[in-house]
Design brief:
Layout (H helix, E strand, L loop, with lengths): L3 H11 L8 H17 L9 E3 L2 E3 L1 H19 L7 H15 L7 H16 L8 H8 L5 H14 L10
Antiparallel strand pairs: 1-2
Helix pairs in contact: 1-2, 1-3, 2-5, 4-7, 5-6, 5-7, 6-7
Length: about 170
């Protein structure tokens, strides 16, 4: 069963005042949906495809618009179906990947995270050099920022090999 309210909840916690009326906020919600589903493994029921700003789901977009009021009411009334560990794990990924790119917006950092993951894991064949492929198709992305985020994601075991434990 698809649940856009998990995406809406995380977005509203990280960016109070979020609005579907702003492009950057819609992009932010798309990337949150991708990361929660594809990286954190929370089954949201959406299919993501490569689009202008990286992973995008038409169904998630429709559901966010259709259920915006219901999602707001659900969380204003105290319904907390979103597991706190998902919010915590998402926040950990964002904070760690945002550190090397402090000048970038939250939406841009999450666009880079989701895009690098999709290029590394969810394309066939997987990209042998996701950073180069990303900056080639998105020249507005800062290469050094993408390289640093890739290192963080690899170090966290999100993409590539997990670090060895001693």
């Amino acid at each position: 069963m698809r649940d856009p309210c998990i995406v809406w909840y995380i977005a509203s916690k990280l960016s109070p005042g979020i609005s579907l009326g702003r492009l950057e906020d819609r992009l932010l919600m798309q990337k949150i949906g991708y990361i929660v589903q594809e990286i954190l493994g929370q089954r949201l029921g959406y299919r993501f495809k490569w689009y202008s700003y990286g992973p995008y789901s038409k169904a998630l977009s429709r559901d966010l618009h259709a259920y915006e009021k219901a999602c707001e009411e659900r969380y204003q009334m105290g319904d907390r179906k979103t597991p706190l560990d998902i919010l915590d794990r998402f926040t950990e990924i964002y904070v760690k990947t945002q550190m090397p790119c402090l000048s970038e917006s939250m939406a841009r950092v999450l666009e880079i995270v989701a895009s690098l993951h999709m290029l590394s894991i969810n394309t066939y064949p997987p990209s042998p050099d996701p950073v180069s492929d990303l900056v080639r198709v998105k020249p507005y992305i800062n290469r050094s920022c993408a390289e640093e985020i890739y290192k963080v994601l690899t170090g966290m075991g999100v993409i590539g090999h997990r670090p060895r434990e001693n």
